[in-house]
Amino acid sequence: MLPSLFISHGSPMLALTPGPAHDFLRDFGATLSPKAIVVVSAHWASERLLVSTSERPETIHDFGGFPRALFECQYPAPGDPELALKLARKLNAVPLERGLDHGAWVPLSLMFPAADVPVVSLSLPVTWSNQDLVELGEKLAKLREEGVLVVGSGSLTHNLAEMQAQGTPMPAWVGEFSDWIFDKLTSGERDALLAWETAPQAHRNHPTPEHFQPLLVALGAGGEASRLHHSVEHGVLAMDLYAFA
């Protein structure tokens, strides 16, 4: 059975720039053979739950200030309207057509470069409680038995105001938070994770919560946590990937 995943997607330049996280995603994707992917991205925030029914989702370039080559990237993975409508009924979600934002297509383009695995996007209901988001993941868990890969895409740490030059060592306040999350996930302390905002340096690492919240969905959809990758970009972006088997 497939795990659920939490992927730290970092900067959109991850799609083009070789490095530890880029290289790991390329190799890791080759070990997976899902029949479809359901992704919850930090970059599709909403008040209520939405699901994309697009048959051919467009590649959304929802960023600015990057090289032209990044805007020329296309990820033409098909959608799966049948699966999307099934999820809309099961989750009481609103169906609509929407493309793939960079939180979805950037990591998936590395993991599945052939763009031949159907992708369905679920929005991130940012007004929901941490418990609500875990319960959303629990409702998605059965998909794993059907060969569907459930992905939460965000960033383990995400304070863009404190980004530094690439190659800058990780400051202590980033390590303190990421180490706390690692400890709570791998020891199965779900109650602590439901109160992740009280973790050391939580607010400094996440001035807003949307890049952490997809982890809670992945947590609910899976079981025992293991960290498959850890690296840091721009000093403050922890690029951790967790699998929940």
TrEMBL record:
Report the superkingdom from the record: Bacteria
Q: Which residues form a coiled coil?
A: none
Q: Which cofactor does it need?
A: Zn(2+)
GO molecular function (one): dioxygenase activity
Q: Which InterPro entries match?
A: Extradiol_dOase_DODA, Xdiol_dOase_suB
Q: Does the keyword Zinc apply?
A: yes
Q: Which UniProt keywords apply?
A: Dioxygenase, Metal-binding, Oxidoreductase, Zinc
Membrane-spanning ranges:
none
Q: Does the keyword Metal-binding apply?
A: yes
> What SUPFAM superfamilies does the record point to?
LigB-like
Chain ranges of the Extradiol ring-cleavage dioxygenase class III enzyme subunit B domain = 6-231
Any matching Pfam family: LigB
Could you tell me which PANTHER family the record lists for this protein?
4,5-DOPA DIOXYGENASE EXTRADIOL-LIKE PROTEIN
The family classification in the record reads: Belongs to the DODA-type extradiol aromatic ring-opening dioxygenase family.
> What is the protein name stated in its UniProt record?
Dioxygenase
Q: Which organism is it from?
A: Billgrantia antri
Identify the taxonomic lineage of the organism of origin: Bacteria, Pseudomonadati, Pseudomonadota, Gammaproteobacteria, Oceanospirillales
